[in-house]
């Protein structure tokens, strides 16, 4: 989704796109649950980078150095 959007996205917006594709995130607060999962993937060497409160982009997105060997996050 981040590749298709070609821009950073908020966890709530990512959740909307996931739901439209038939995916569900369990829990009382699905946005918070997804945000936690995204945050864990945004550490050093991860495929994502955290830009702000629940806002993520690909680690190799615009403005960053290329990261080779990362999975396609579409």
Automatic annotation (TrEMBL):
Keyword Zinc: no
GO biological process, one term: regulation of DNA-templated transcription
Keywords from the UniProt entry: Transcription
Biased composition (Basic and acidic residues): 50-60
Annotated region described as Disordered, given as residue ranges: 41-74
Domain HTH HARE-type: 1-61
Protein name as catalogued: HTH HARE-type domain-containing protein
Species per Swiss-Prot/TrEMBL record: Methylobacterium symbioticum
